Amino acid sequence: MTAAISTWAKRKILTVGSALLDVLLPPQCLGCRRLVDRPGQLCPDCWGRIRFIAPPFCACCGLPFGRDEGVGTLCPSCIAEPPLFERARSVFVYDEHSRDLVLSFKHADRTERSVPYGRWLARAAIDLTTDCDLVVPVPLHRWRLWRRRYNQSALLALAVARETGRPAAVDLLIRPRATPTQGGLGREARRRNVAGAIALRPGRAVTGLRVLLIDDVFTTGATVTACARVLLQAGAARVDVLTLARVVRDDDRSI
Description:
alpha/beta; globular
């Protein structure tokens, strides 16, 4: 009885505290800062501008198609050069309307956004999150982590793990070699830039595990491919990829 009362009291305190916080700091839209009903929401206008990715898309890399090509259809890139990862999925297209959602989280200390983003990620790829043994983020080099103070991909991985009940290993992969930023580099330059830059932390094992790799943006797939290569060489059974955003170029078959 005492334990039940204590639990009720804690819930009541949290409810009252949340209500007071909403009065002092009303929840704002993640996009335009307009007032919304609950924290971690988009207002209707911002929601309508975001290009959320849904079928039809490439069965492998998740590239959105302009028309339904049938179940299991692959995009030309995946046919020509099958990725090392099994499947990749993303929540929304990275464009002028969604860019601030990513950059404010990545560079402007808006780390609280990992909570709603974790919900979006979990909902966008239920087939991936229910079919994995371990959630792992793309790593940052220690100097970049020191400058930024947090790894945005690790925060997303922890949020996905909380949403799905899957275990996370945020320190499984390391980046022993510092690399220039991938921004502005083409596909081949990105591949060369991250070649040999990712490693498995010494003493760790992934043999037989189905790994879900988390990152913020899928651009060419060079970084997640480098991570997948390390995990597969270490004995992982499969690597899937889940990102918040996906770059879709004009020459891609997009939505």
